[in-house]
Each structure stands twice: as C-alpha cells, then as structure tokens.
Amino acid sequence: MLSTLRSLHRPFLSRFFCLLCFAVPAFLVVADRAQAGELPSVALHYGADAPLAAMKAFDIAVVEPDHGFDPAAYRGQGRSELFAYVSVGEVHPTRPYAARIPEAWRIGRNQAWKSVVIDQAQPAWPAFFAEQVIAPLWARGYRGFFLDTLDSYHLVNGVDVVAQQQGMVAVVRQLRSRFPGIRLIFNRGFELLPDLRDEVYAVAAESLYRGWDAKKKRYVEVGQSDRDWLLGQLLTARDKYGVTAIAIDYVAPAARELARDTARRIHAHGIVPYVTDGDLRHLGVGLIEVLPRKILFLYNSREAARVNVSGAHRYAEMPVNHLGYVADYVDVNQPLPDTVPAAEYAGVVSWFDGHVPPARATVLARWMAARIAEGTRLAVFGSFGFEPAGDFLREAGLAPVAPARGRLDIASADPSIGFESPPIPERGRLERVRVDVDAARTLLTVADADGKRYDAVAQMPWGGFALHPFAIRVLPLEEAQTRWIVEPFAFIRDALALPPLPVPDTTTLSGRRMFFAHIDGDGFASRSEMKGRRLAAEVLLDDVLKRYALPHAMSVIEIETSAQGPYAKDSAEMESVARRMFALPNVEIASHSYTHPFYWDSVERGEVKQALQGYSLAPEGYVPSLEREIAGSVDYIRSRLAPPGKPVGLMLWTGDAAPTEAALEMVERLGMVQMNGGYTVASRLYPSLAAVSALGTWQGRRFHVHAPIMNENVTPICGPVRSTVSSASPKPSISPTSRAGSSRSTSTTTPIRRASRRRWKRCTRCTGTRWRSRCIRSTRASTCASR
User: Fold this and answer.
1) Digit-coded pLDDT (tens) for 241-295
2) Residues 165, 168, 172, 174: is their CA dihedral positive or negative?
3) Coil vs helix vs strand at 427
4) DSSP assignment, residue 130?
5) Where is average pLDDT lowest: 323-332, 351-360, 399-408, 425-434?
6) What is the pTM of this model?
7) Are 190 and 235 in contact (CB under 8 A)?
8) Which residues have C-beta within 8 Å of that of residue 511, sequence separation ≥ 6?
9) How far apart (Å, rounded) are the C-alpha atoms in residues 324 and 708?
C-alpha cells in the first residue's frame, strides 16, 4: 500500500490499540494548569510492568532502569521524560556494579533493605559512580535521575557527617561535569542544597501526610511534629534554593478518594504531590490523575484453554472495547492478584459457564468478597463460578433460595432484557439466589410454581450480574449462532459505573473514516474460468488492483509461488504476477507465511500438525519454525518479488490466525505490523452483536490485531454472483473454500474443484450462489439461508 495505505494501515494496526489502551484522559487534581502554577507533574513506579503509556500523561516518570525500559523511545512519543532511579548512599548486592565496589568503601548495612552503605568520602567514589552507575544509563538514553539514599550515612555510627556530605556534593558536580544537561531529583538531601544552588532540578521527600511503615507493613498517618518539620524543609528548598519541591505519600491502592484528598492537601502548599502505594507498584495520583482504561477479566482455562476462545473474549470484550476500555486477563486457576488497584483498573468482568474446579472455588469466592468489600466493582456473566454461600452472600447482598418446583416463568423484566432474543427460563441452569438489599435494581426475575423468586439479572451497589441462561443464548441452527439477551453495553457501563469519557474510534483517523483492504494470498496458483484461463491472481491484478486505485495489502504464501513448492511449473508466471502487483503504488506488500500453518502454537513448538481437513502445504520432512514461517517468507518476498526499496510491512496470519507472543515479537522485531483472526460476521444471516469480535487479543505484552471481518467464504452472505475458478493442480491445495474458519480476511478468489462444479446452484430469490448440499431452505425460499 506504500504511502497511501501506510498512513491508514499503520495507525490502525500498530497504534489504534495504544490509543484504546493507553491514550488515557487525565485531569488535574487542581482546577486548571494555571492554578497549578506550571508545576511539573511527577509519577514514580518501580515495577517491571510499569504502565509507561499511561505515565506519559506526567511530565516526569521515575522508573527502575534495571527493568530494561527504553528512555529514548519513550521520549520520542511525547513530552514526558523517563527518569532513572539510582541509589547513591547504598548499593544492593543485585546491582551489576556491586561486585566492583572495594571492600574498604563498605562502611555499614541497611538491614531493612539488605543493602550496603557506601563511604561517600572516598576520593575515587565520584568517578566510580559516574562511570559505573550513571554512564551505562546515560548511554541507554536516560537524561534525568532520581537520586535516593542521600542520607544513608546516618545509619553508620561515628561517621564524619561533614565528609560524607562533601563527598555527595562532589558526586553531583562530577555528574554535571561528565554529563552536560543532566537533570537531578534528590530524595531528601536537604543539607546539600546550600552547596548545590542551581545544580539540582528538584527535591523530593516521602510521607508528608501519609506514610508506609515498612516494618509493620501498614499505612500510617504522619504525626503533626514530623509533618511540620518536613514541610518546612520542602518550603525552604523551594523558596530559598529555587528547586521544585515534591512530596511522595503512601495510601492503600484501593483508597482512591484518600489518595485524591492527600494530593490536594499537598498541592495546597505549592508542592508537587504524588500519592501511591507503599511498594510503588501501582500508578498513583499526582497533579493529574490518569483515569484507568483497563478492566480485569477473569476466565477459566478449564473451560477455554486459550483466552481467544473464552466466552469472556468472544462476547464481553467487544462491548468493553466499544466503551473505551481493554481487557487484562487472569486465569482463575492461577494465583489471583492481591488487589485490583483503582488507578489501573476500572473494575472486574468475569465470565464462567459453570463452576470453577473445587480447589479454586473457595479461593474465588473469598477473592470476590474481598474485592466487593474494598470497593472494586464487578460485572459477573454466566455463573459466579461457585455455589454462592456464607460470607460471599452477605458481602454481595444476596440471599439463597430453595430449589424451584414446577413451571418457571418470567416474573418481571426490564426493557433492556430481550435485547436480541427473549429470555427463556431453563431449570437446569438456574442460579438459586435473590437480591437482598434495597439499593439494588433487579432487571430480570424468574418465579416458580410456588411463587419463589430468583433474580437472574441485577445491578447491585457493588456492580452487577447477568446469570445463565439470561446473558446470551446459542441458537440451535446448523451452524451455531449466538444472541444477546441482556443489552451488554448498558449492563457493563452501569455495573462498573464507568464515567462518560472520550473514546478512541478505531474506524476514524483525523475525523475521516478509514478504508483499508487486505488480501490473503491463498489460491494464487488457481486458474480462472475466464477466457484464456489466466491465473486468478492475474485477473485480480488487471481487473481490480490496476483498475481501482484503492489501497490494498497483497500477500503471498511462499511455498505456493516459489519454485520449490508444489506448483513449481507455474512459479515463474506467478512470481511475475506478484512482482507487478507489488510494484503498484496502491499495494502494500504482505507475507502470508511460508507454508500456511493452521496452528501457530504448534509452529512455535516445532510440531507438525495438519489442518482438520487433513492436508498441508508443508514439504516432506519440514520442521515448522517461527523463523522460517515469518522471517524466511519475508526474506523470500524481499529478494524475489518486492521492488528495490519497497518494504514488506505486514504479516497476515494464517490458519487459526492465533499467533503466540513469540510470533508477535518476531513481527515487531522485523519492523512490521500484523493482522488477521477474530470472529466478526456482518451479515443478515447472522444479525447479532455477539458475532462482532473484540479489536484483538493480548498475548503477554503484545497485541494481536484482529481483522475487521472473517473471510467471505467462511461466512457467505447473499450478494452478487462471484466468479469461480478451478484448482491449478490436481494436488490438494489450500484455498479459502476448503479451509473454512482458518484465516479471517478477504481472500483472493473462491476456488472450487472441477469435479464439484455441478453442486453449485443459483438461489431463485437471491443473487448469490450457494452449495446446494448445505442449503438450509429450499431454493424456492424467499431468503437464501445457506451458510
């Protein structure tokens, strides 16, 4: 697609999910920027999973550099600057430079942190610190540093305090001389300021109003005398020495209102606030607060081995995406997080088709009760995952109900129930609970012959639940379809109390709707049934790509077009067509792999696994590998088919279109973007939002982008008659028709075999053609319902 499509495809594939996930709105704790006095906003996060994209809302983000962050890349994506945390007065044995520190320089220990106190008076210490500690970080791109443990010499009895302080002054001056433009934030170190006027950017101090008692592992309120002393130090640093003053306070992650109030109190003194948890592992509140764009999703891997086939992903994630949020998945069979920090998560969504394994049921029940108690909002779909009882019932405001007797009927239903299909009670799936608090709003109630009432859908003070069979219904058609019973958007919004906020629209760029088209290379070797029996790919080239100057991404399967594949006799002709395609200015070059794997997890493991249909394009003896399928196919296209200088910029996944994290990482390493997969159907034959997929799937820390719609051959709809082609070879070949349900994008053609042509028949009331053997209705029916 070159320049034309790259301006569309690149934002869609590599940036749209960043917007959705992390282009987070933020608001000042104070009224406006002018009122804030142009103070810099500061955040600190020492976790390996620091939410860098969210931290871009702050002017300065302090991180632990040993976690491998890239400050240069971070700086290039906005005005925020990444500062590195560095300890001056102490060194932990795990630091890479710790072993190089002479024994004579080690003058004490900090037992609380298991670290060694360093003698700052050593003449060689400033140069050592500059070259061994700061220089490697400077080379990685850090230009700002948060200097900690500046008062650790007080832990050593009988130390020469003045000599230690002068040693630290020497360290700072060495850094400023060695690294021009360096910016330094002190953590305390107030006594150094008289000697370092105009050489320090800011001074921070911990626990002005609220602190963390590391020994007792609890949050505490700071006493008045300690507060007055520390406030005086910060104000002196600001007013006398002209440095920015920062106060870092600590509250529990779930105590969001307390964090906001503490930040306001700090800022009232003209001091930059940052209020976070005691371990600095969660995003806190500062001059601004980043509104969370993530929602924690619970799923049961015993029901769905992979996230992308779970009910939570198939159904609940799309409405969450539409509301402007992304899902962060946790398997209930693994350890559950100790807390769900309100700074990072807008709430929790769970989707279970039944109970979790008994060994986890008690754990899950306690966990959910604890989240309700701490104020985390939950939206429950399907089942709670356990038999509600005891503490959970009390915390959730629910009461048990005896088993139903006789006929079940709908006793009451909110207008939002029956969204795409009416509610139909099923005794075998009825959860025996009722709402037991006045503040709840019941949306659907079922009653039995005795008048006992069972609440199946409700909005609760802590969130909401939509229990089976009243969340979705699977229709008993030849090919299963699903319908929503509850209106998912309003239900999730109300259950999680999501505020109205700007939502990134992935269909739109700079106010204009985006158009893009991509073509899987399957069937490149097929011959058209048009005059001259040209290659179907050549027909596509002449009648579509050349005729209409619309941007397209075009891909090939290497083994299908190369001279080493099963269609070697036509390779020269196919490669010539591909070269002419890729030379067009409106065509972006894409790879559709080497052998069209059907199962990408098997490729990562090096396992040979055929499609369910029992065939493969892989050559005999071939051991699958991500390197060969991705990088190898890209090299083939670059060396044989692409014009000089034109990149191969896109990977279109094949088969199950479910790449692993390693596969996504490889594509990223090659400087490419990727797409395909998902389950979206847009058809009158499947009129349901349940058929619309989420925007993609997270695989570890990387995002797999779904195609906007499945293959047209996977989900045929009534429409214009399409030309058909026959196979180019008597050997079985992978074609979109024969691999229904594999990759999820627009295909080159719709190939069929010669021997099967007589099975096609025109629908008498429809302009489409369908397989006669799969027609649900008679061809005289008013609507073609074949699938």
Assistant:
1) 999 999 999 999 888 899 999 999 999 999 999 999 999 999 999 999 998 999 9
2) positive
3) helix
4) I
5) 425-434
6) 0.78
7) no
8) none
9) 17
Distance in angstroms between the alpha carbons of the first and the last residue of the chain: 32
Length reported for the chain: 787
Q: List the structure tokens of 274.
A: 């940052």
Q: The tokens of 296 are what? A: 């924690």
State the Cα–Cα distance between residues 10 and 2, nearest whole angstrom.
11
Distances in Å between the Cα of 192 and the Cα atoms of 33, 145, 157, 195, 231 are 31, 16, 20, 6, 17
Name the amino acid, one letter, at 550: L
DSSP character at residue 614:
S
Residue whose token pair is 């002479």 = 102
Residue 24 phi, psi (nearest 5): -80, 140
Three-class SS of 339-408: CCCCCCEEEEEEEECCCCCHHHHHHHHHHHHHHHHHCCCEEEEECCCCCCCHHHHHHHCEEECCCCCCCC
Report the distance separating Cα 488 and Cα 104, nearest Å: 66
Which helix (DSSP H) or strand (DSSP E) does residue 591 occupy?
A: strand 587-591
280 sits in the region (left: phi over 0; alpha: psi -120 to 50; else beta) called: left
The pLDDT value recorded for residue 37 is 56
Per-residue confidence (pLDDT) for residue 683, from 0 to 100 = 84
Q: List CB contacts of 374: < 8 A, sequence separation 6 or more.
A: 254, 339
